[in-house]
C-alpha cells in the first residue's frame, strides 16, 4: 500500500473519532445558561412574533418567489455574456437576443395572465 493511502486512512479514522468525542464533551462539560433572553425564540430584538407559526400563506407569495428566481437566474446568465461580448461576436449577440426575447415573451405572458396583480 502507498503511504498516502495509509496516511489518508489514518486521518479519516482520527477525524471520525475526534469530532464526535469533542461534540459529546462539549455537551457534557459545556456551560449551560438559561434565562429570560436565552429562552426567547428570537434574540434579534423582536419581542414576539405576530400570528401562529403554522399559519397559511397566500400562493401569491410563493409564485412571486418562483418568478423572482427565474428572472434572477436570467441575470446570472447575462453577466458572463456581457463580459465576453466582444469575444463571442455577432453569433453570441444573436443568441443572447433570442434568449432575452424568450424571457420577455414569458414576462408579457405573466403580465397578461395577471399574476403580478395583488387585488
Automatic annotation (TrEMBL):
Gene3D superfamilies recorded for this chain? NADH:ubiquinone/plastoquinone oxidoreductase, chain 3
User: In terms of one coarse class, where is the protein primarily found?
Assistant: membrane
Q: What is its EC number?
A: 7.1.1.-
Q: Which reaction does it catalyse?
A: a quinone + NADH + 5 H(+)(in) = a quinol + NAD(+) + 4 H(+)(out)
Is NAD one of the keywords UniProt gives this record? yes
- State the encoding gene: nuoA
Residue ranges annotated as transmembrane are 6-29, 61-82, 88-111
Sorted keywords for this record are: Cell membrane, Membrane, NAD, Quinone, Translocase, Transmembrane, Transmembrane helix, Transport, Ubiquinone
Subunit structure of this entry?
NDH-1 is composed of 14 different subunits. Subunits NuoA, H, J, K, L, M, N constitute the membrane sector of the complex.
Annotated membrane topology is:
Multi-pass membrane protein
**Pfam families, alphabetically?**
Oxidored_q4
> What task does this protein carry out?
NDH-1 shuttles electrons from NADH, via FMN and iron-sulfur (Fe-S) centers, to quinones in the respiratory chain. The immediate electron acceptor for the enzyme in this species is believed to be ubiquinone. Couples the redox reaction to proton translocation (for every two electrons transferred, four hydrogen ions are translocated across the cytoplasmic membrane), and thus conserves the redox energy in a proton gradient.
Concerning its family, UniProt says:
Belongs to the complex I subunit 3 family.
What is the official name of this protein in its record? NADH-quinone oxidoreductase subunit A
Give the species this sequence originates from.
Desulfofustis limnaeus
Report the superkingdom from the record.
Bacteria
Cellular localization per UniProt: Cell membrane; Membrane
